[in-house]
Structure formats: C-alpha cells, structure tokens
C-alpha cells in the first residue's frame, strides 16, 4: 500500500474513533491533517487513473462523512455545509466506480434537512429532484420530505413528534435548530396576538415536553416575560411600534419571495 494511503487509512480510523467517543478536539485536529493528506492522493480531482484510485476515493468519501458528523457535533454550521457539499461530489462522481456508501441517503437526508431552517425551499426541491427514485423510499429522505410538507401545511404541532422520531442520531442537532426556528416564529406571533397565556398553554404551544425546560427557556431567552398567577404575561416584550414590526416582516417576506423567484427563473 502507498505510504500516503496507509497514513490516511490509519488517521481515518483514529478520526472515526474520536467522533464515536465525542473527543471533538482530537477529531478537529485529525480532520485537518487528513484534508492535507487528501491533497497528496493522485486519484482525487483532477481525477487520475492510478492503481490505488478506488481505495483513495473510498477513503476520501469516508473522511468527508466523518467530517459532516464532526461539524454537527461541534455545531459549526459553515463547516457542516462545506463538508456536505464536498461529500455530495463524491456521491455523484463515484457511484459508477464502486458501490454506493451505505450511509449515502442518511447524509443526503441531512443535506435536505439543513435547508429547512433557512427557508431554502426551492433548493430543497431541486436537491430532491436530483435523487434517484429509490432514494425516496429511504427513511431519512422520507423523514425530510414529510417534515417539509408539514411546514408547508403549517402544522407545526407535529414538530415535537418529528423531534422524537429522528431516523438517525445525527439528525438530532438539525432538528433542534429547526425547533428553535419554529419556536421563534411562534413567540413573535404570540407576543403580538396575546397579552398573556396560561403557563400550560404556552408550554404546549412552544413544544416543550417539561416545565423545567420551559422555565429555563424563559429565564435564558425571554427574561422580559413575567410569570404571574400561573400565566405568562407578554406586556414587557411587546414591541414599541407594531407598524415597525409588521413592516419588517413584510420586507423579510418579500425578500424571501424574490429569492425564490430568482432561483426558479
């Protein structure tokens, strides 16, 4: 075995071990070393036919699969997006060279899921159209599609069920982000629509499973809310100018529509 390939194989095993036991600091350092090693493998783009081409491509693909998981664990959204994009290229360009990764649809489902918190719906459907028909029956892809459909229907109350039924543990972080985005929207609407809500109603509306989590959220994220007589009072959180808030929402919505139209055209 080529010395560079052997070193990459060994460090990949260490990276997988570090990710499995949540040794994130070691994982980040190993990933940086592995990405440097990848530049020395001759079969990687620009693609050259070498005796070790298949092994080198397989190792590179596995490195980026680990990179995606690691970026999720360290909550680095930019690295997560970059690593997923690079991983997709290996999935697209190598499926005729050797067998698909057993984790391919798991990661492609993550790719779909990451678009939802940013409301990148047109990109979501573009990515979906590029998937083979067999992928649509995979649990991870079906999960992302059903979640997007529930968003389009406005059935946010199902989100708690989705959070509890993730098809893979790697989906937990993204679902937490999606839940936070939806919760922020509900909070904005609730503050506008109500002067107060019963604690039990607010807890359910904001999709908390326990009162402890709910009160921690209020303490950390909504300190201006007042808890009085078993109710949450929003008067201190109401915006000074309703017109300003409405205008801001309209501008934000218009920009979102413009972006969607631009991508469609």
From TrEMBL:
TM helices/strands, residue ranges: none
InterPro entries (UniProt xref): 26S_Psome_Rpn12, CSN8_PSD8_EIF3K, PCI_dom
Designated name of the protein: PCI domain-containing protein
Gene Ontology terms: cellular component: cytosol; nucleus; proteasome regulatory particle, lid subcomplex
A Pfam family hit: CSN8_PSD8_EIF3K
A GO BP entry: proteasome-mediated ubiquitin-dependent protein catabolic process
Location of the PCI domain: 78-263
Gene source species: Digitaria exilis
Family to which this protein belongs: Belongs to the proteasome subunit S14 family.
């Amino acid at each position: 075995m080529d010395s560079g390939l052997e070193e990459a194989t060994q460090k990949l095993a260490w990276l997988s071990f570090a990710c499995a036991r949540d040794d994130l600091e070691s994982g980040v350092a190993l990933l940086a070393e592995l990405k440097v090693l990848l530049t020395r493998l001759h079969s990687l783009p620009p693609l050259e036919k070498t005796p070790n081409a298949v092994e080198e491509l397989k190792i590179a693909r596995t490195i980026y699969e680990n990179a995606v998981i690691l970026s999720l664990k360290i909550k680095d959204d930019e690295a997560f997006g970059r690593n997923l994009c690079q991983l997709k290229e290996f999935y697209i360009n190598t499926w005729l060279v050797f067998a698909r990764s057993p984790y391919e649809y798991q990661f492609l489902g993550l790719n779909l899921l990451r678009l939802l918190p940013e409301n990148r719906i047109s990109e979501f459907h573009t990515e979906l159209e590029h998937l083979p028909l067999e992928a649509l029956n995979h649990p991870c892809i079906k999960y992302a599609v059903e979640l997007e459909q529930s968003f389009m229907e406005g059935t946010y109350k199902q989100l708690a069920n989705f959070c509890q039924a993730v098809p893979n543990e790697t989906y937990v972080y993204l679902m937490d982000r999606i839940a936070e985005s939806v919760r922020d929207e509900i909070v904005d609407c609730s503050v506008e629509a109500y002067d107060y809500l019963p604690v039990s109603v607010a807890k359910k509306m904001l999709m908390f499973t326990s009162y402890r989590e709910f009160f921690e959220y209020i303490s950390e994220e909504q300190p201006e809310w007042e808890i009085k007589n078993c109710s949450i009072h929003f008067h201190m959180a109401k915006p000074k100018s309703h017109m300003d808030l409405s205008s801001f929402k309209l501008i934000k919505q218009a920009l979102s529509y413009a972006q969607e139209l631009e991508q469609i055209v």
